[in-house]
Design goal:
homodimer; 2,3-Dihydroxybiphenyl 1,2-Dioxygenase, domain 1; 9-stranded mixed sheet; 25 strands; EC 4.2.1.118 (chains A, B); 3-dehydroshikimate dehydratase (chains A, B)
């Protein structure tokens, strides 16, 4: 189906909005009246700009407080409408949205509403305009879609139909099944918006918290199925009022928006995309750093060994078991200081994974960085992290390790208690505006599931964290975002390494000269109050700075290294099916990090 | 009464919070458990720190999910409580908050709750601790204050009393009058928080949106009167969970907090402060600028004349009628580029106004800047703007104009159509975190009333605006704040000058070489749709960039100059008692400003 977006969903001037919608691949736009009023472009110029950008103008919106009023008031409303229909002729659009009235002058009189909407449609017809009447969830007398439809039906005018808006329908808890009783050709327009499930005043909820389908809690796919069954064949149009999107860069928002519509259409069989290829593990994490020394010291103390070096680039491979970390000291160190730049995802079908990512509008990165490199499929995540879809030592597929030459190194003695054996999870701090976008990206592009979103109290502000994971838990990525833009170093990214004995791992790390983040004594006094531990257990945790959590499934023990640049490491031990990340302990860890300067 | 604040209400480390509370003049604190857990200080060190800072520890909080559970669970809870009572002994505090349980294990059994709370109180008594039981608004079985009190009463234990929290009581719509039926000595603690009136989930409302008394919509004063009548004589303590305060600088928040308690106490006769001295007009606005030329060009074109120069400083006085603007090119130009640095408020009693401001914790500025200057009472507003309480040409009071020497200038011909005659309003953009603080400051310190708060859609983000005014409307200050920190130049401050003929004023301004901000043609097409104008009227507005608004009382016409640095000017014509500021037009004006580079 054709896709469209209301200009109010994007930030910036009208020109910026139109450009962003076009670049993201939308077919059309709804022109929001205030965007037009504030634009220096004439309606004819807007029309031409849209044509140049390959955009149709699918709707002009909104017209408010038209119907069910005393005759003198209605005469004024018709006068106003005539001006707008003339404007629409200049714009070259033939559909206008009329919202159910909120005027205190309006009468609770459906027959009057139908008669006046019919007269409005008469006038509209003279201008070649079709009127789409929509129930606002907070409309004065008409607030449900079936009520709006009954008025449209009663008017029985060819230029009058209804507009359905998923927010107005689902926020009221209306059953969308009744949509199928509306003749498809009388559904003149469909506006889609999701929203988080908040118990709050519906008008405030609508004006500030709408989001793109799949980013909230509504069953938009279910509603869309009913609309399709009714026979609607107009555009799928996003109308999202969101305080954050109002501030975010329009181009990014538009891509996020269209991705949401692609996934929505796929979910009900309206679009066919390359299927998701769920990663089966983390092949590697890649750090960039201007100075390998501090990172190397920590990795060595963590028990990883430098086993290989890239053939043509200053990139070292550090590994232990399936935990592999690349340390890149090349000019690719684009970020300030030391940071996490890329993630290798072990993929059963790297090419297929990249095809899906591309279909879902992820920027595709060059397959070969140098002529001699093995081909490697990669895309950029919304936060700029490079995601490589790759295979480790699987004969049927290009092997990313083939680009690395083995270094002679002293093998450490076989099995060691507490040895790190894989990456448990990666924690990626997202740019302020892009939390929902990142979650949708990781779910739709990578086929990961979202876990519960949690608030974490940092001493200097709340932030929000949400993990995405595959079903086996072998890929876990924790996405976090602060409450506002910040330069705060402690909102760094981190790599958590799994061990089956965190106490032994921590001791060995310390013995090898590694610096563990010390935790406050009061924390351990509180653990003693909350849980009973075996003799000496708590003293050990206290000594090593190990944090403890427990859920219905199992236990979690974890500790942290000092921060290097914008990165730190965590050692984690999961027992008995614990699924979380120790969010309970995060405020204590964050406070401890605020008390320390990062190493450089 | 003694004042106290919960550490959770302030941002930062525990040490930073305690320091801020002490500096703002609080007598005590509630220690929030998570702040203690995350602190590297031992309980003994925290106790000593508080003593050094002159703070008592009035409460340790919270203890959760204690009561009405099966015996084996309760035994674990008592064990946990014993640990906390030991901790409290080390801290040197004797009161603990117990919140009504939210545990799914809890039984709906008041007798069991009373019996177990009694046993908890037995244990507490051994440690010299008093238990204050509070109903959470979302408690599982106990969610109202009278229910919590009935359980405390049934337990009949000397070490068990109740804690009242204004948020939990008022958010549920409970009638606070019943508080008077509780014996004062059984009200062990009182926590105060206000909140905006939002229809939303009460837990989310409580956790994110609480604010200080007078900043929300609750009748905190009414509740406090009931508590005082009940005989409560403990501290007034603020417990505020607020996403913004979590990020704001603790020292500023603590001052804002204590100011709110002072005003609250004054409002019900518990504190005696110097009375408010409401300003009767705006004596002057003072601009600082590194280069007087662009400002002078605009002021001259606006019809103001440079009439006087400060005796000892590079400050010029520009005036016309009662519109007076100082242009300061001295080193006092602290801000980057051109900005509004000070406001002179015409005061019937400048010294009294300053005494009140000082009592309400406003930083008092030196009365004489130089030995020869006339004494001038001044304080700093929260945004750093200097507020001078002054008198213009009133013989009984020091005259600020006495410091200025008249310049020879050519008098313009007497009455001129559209001449500017006074400052209609000043618009001051507030730092991001300080909107509620600024509104409370202007209301309490200056005795101005708050007008309605409105959302304004800037093309690049929503912002919020709220005006404060005196009853005659001769002082109007519009406070605005953006949705997030921004460097955006168009969120500048501005000075609106009143005229009784904005068309004539705009024409003269333009004829004198002034640059008016052009407005888009589409805006005028929309005006034509909405209103009927006299012949030629709209064409004039369109030509000059005059915006139009209308409310139930009257009409408003206004236009804007180009921006210089961070300041621009507005010409406004109010007719028939219009009370607003043209907020309806602000998105169009903001978009027009985004399209222009400010002059420097």
């Amino acid at each position: 189906m054709r896709t469209s977006i209301a200009t109010v969903s994007l930030s910036g001037s009208l020109t910026e909005k139109l450009t962003a919608a076009s670049r993201a691949g939308f077919d059309g736009v709804e022109i929001f009246e205030n965007d037009l009023l504030a634009s220096p472009l004439t309606p004819e110029e807007i029309r031409a700009r849209c044509a140049d950008l390959g955009l149709t103008i699918d709707l002009y919106q909104p017209m408010r407080d038209i119907e069910a009023v005393p005759e003198d008031e209605f005469a004024r409303n018709l006068r106003r409408a005539r001006h707008k229909f003339e404007l629409m002729r200049r714009l070259g659009t033939d559909a206008v949205l009329v919202c159910s009235t909120v005027s205190p002058l309006a009468l609770d009189d459906d027959a009057l509403a139908a008669a006046q909407l019919g007269r409005l449609a008469d006038l509209a017809q003279d201008f070649g305009v079709r009127v789409a009447y929509e129930a606002l969830a907070w409309g004065r007398h008409v607030s449900t879609y079936d009520h709006a439809w009954s008025i449209v039906e009663a008017a029985g005018h060819p230029a009058l139909g209804t507009c359905l808006d998923s927010f107005h329908i689902l926020s009221r808890g209306s059953d969308p099944k009744g949509i199928e009783d509306i003749p498809g050709e009388k559904i003149f327009f469909l506006q889609l918006a999701d929203a988080p499930l908040l118990a709050m005043d519906v008008l405030q909820w609508s004006r500030h918290y709408r989001c793109f389908p799949g980013q909230g809690g509504f069953d938009i796919a279910g509603l869309l199925q009913h609309v399709v069954r009714a026979g609607y064949d107009g555009p799928l149009s996003l109308e999202v009022f969101n305080d954050v999107f109002r501030q975010a860069e329009a181009g990014t928002t538009a891509v996020d928006a269209r991705r949401s519509l692609l996934v929505l259409q796929e979910s009900i069989g309206l679009a066919s995309l390359p299927g998701p290829v769920v990663p089966t593990g983390i092949a590697f994490a890649e750090l960039v750093t201007p100075d390998a020394e501090p990172v190397a010291a920590i990795l060595g103390a963590l028990g990883l060994a430098r086993t290989a070096r890239h053939r043509s680039k200053p990139v070292d491979l550090w590994e232990r078991g399936e935990a592999r970390i690349l340390v890149n000291t090349g000019p690719a160190a684009r970020r300030d200081g030391t940071g996490l730049a890329a993630v290798g995802l072990e993929s059963p079908d790297p090419e297929g994974a990249a095809r899906r990512a591309e279909a879902l509008l992820a920027p595709v990165l060059p397959r070969r960085r140098a002529p001699e490199d093995a081909p490697l499929d990669a895309v950029a995540a919304p936060d700029g992290t490079e995601l490589f879809f790759c295979a480790t030592d699987r004969p049927e597929l290009p092997n990313w390790r083939a680009d690395f030459e083995t270094i002679e190194y002293v093998e450490t003695a076989g099995d060691v208690a507490g040895a790190v054996d894989r990456i448990d999870h990666l924690a990626l701090t997202q740019p302020w505006h892009h939390f929902d976008e990142a979650a949708l990206f990781h779910r739709s592009v990578l086929g990961l599931h979202g876990q519960e979103s949690v608030d974490v109290a940092d001493p200097y502000g709340l932030f929000r964290s949400r993990a995405v994971t595959n079903s086996g838990g072998s890929v876990r990525i924790a996405l976090a975002v602060g409450p506002a833009p910040t330069e705060d170093e402690t909102r760094a990214q981190h790599i958590a390494l799994a061990t089956d004995d965190v106490v032994a791992a921590a001791r060995r790390f310390r013995a090898a000269g590694g610096g563990l983040l010390p935790m406050p004594a009061n924390y351990y006094d509180d653990l003693a109050a909350r849980y009973e531990f075996t003799e000496g257990e708590l003293a050990t945790y206290r000594e090593l700075g190990i944090l403890y959590d427990r859920d219905a499934q199992g236990e979690f023990r974890h500790c942290y290294t000092r921060t290097v640049g914008r990165v730190f490491f965590e050692l984690v031990q999961r027992d008995g099916g614990y699924q979380g990340y120790g969010a309970q302990n995060a405020p204590v860890r964050l406070a401890a990090q605020h008390g320390q300067r990062p190493l450089r």
